[in-house]
Backbone:
């Protein structure tokens, strides 16, 4: 972790995104975010939104940490399945739950 932190300190203009799977249990995702907090991630990117039974982890983490949501992925066809996080789409996913 120290190596990664040192690498990120080389250039303060580097925008860091913490990538998490939407299928990760909230408690585990919370542990991951805390461990990577030393790297000061600025944004979250959530994968496997199409495979998750709910999106509560996304909402909880975005509300709990001073980090914005940048992108989500819906499928295996990268980069075609990466999309900007859209509040309306996220609201629809929440209501689906």
Residues:
């Amino acid at each position: 972790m120290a190596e990664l932190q040192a690498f990120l300190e080389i250039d303060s203009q580097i925008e860091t995104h913490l990538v998490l799977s939407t299928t990760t249990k909230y408690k585990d995702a919370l542990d991951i975010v805390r461990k990577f907090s030393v790297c000061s991630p600025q944004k979250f990117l959530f994968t496997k939104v199409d495979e998750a039974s709910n999106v509560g982890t996304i909402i909880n983490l975005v509300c709990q940490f001073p980090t914005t949501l940048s992108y989500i992925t819906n499928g295996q066809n990268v980069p075609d399945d990466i999309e900007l996080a859209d509040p309306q789409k996220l609201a629809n996913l929440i209501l689906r739950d």
